[in-house]
Amino acid sequence: MADSNSIKVFGKIKSIINSFTYKVTLENGVEMQVVSSGNMKRFRAKFLPGDEVVVEISNFDMSKGRIVERKK
Questions:
Q1: Which of 20, 22, 41, 71 is the most exposed place for a label (fewest CB within 10 A)?
Q2: Mean pLDDT throughout 17-26?
């Protein structure tokens, strides 16, 4: 279930840090480090630099985010 206190923004993967952590450039130009959501880890979704994703950011801590969807 998605958290109601979150913001969803589009971004593009810039680099891979490790298997579940990525550096993403958001549509507003901000770079942040994000992790794959639990469902993405469960199905072992792989991302490459340049992939467009939807990042969910918490209202309480704007420095952390998680990938919830990959755009095609």
A1: 71
A2: 92
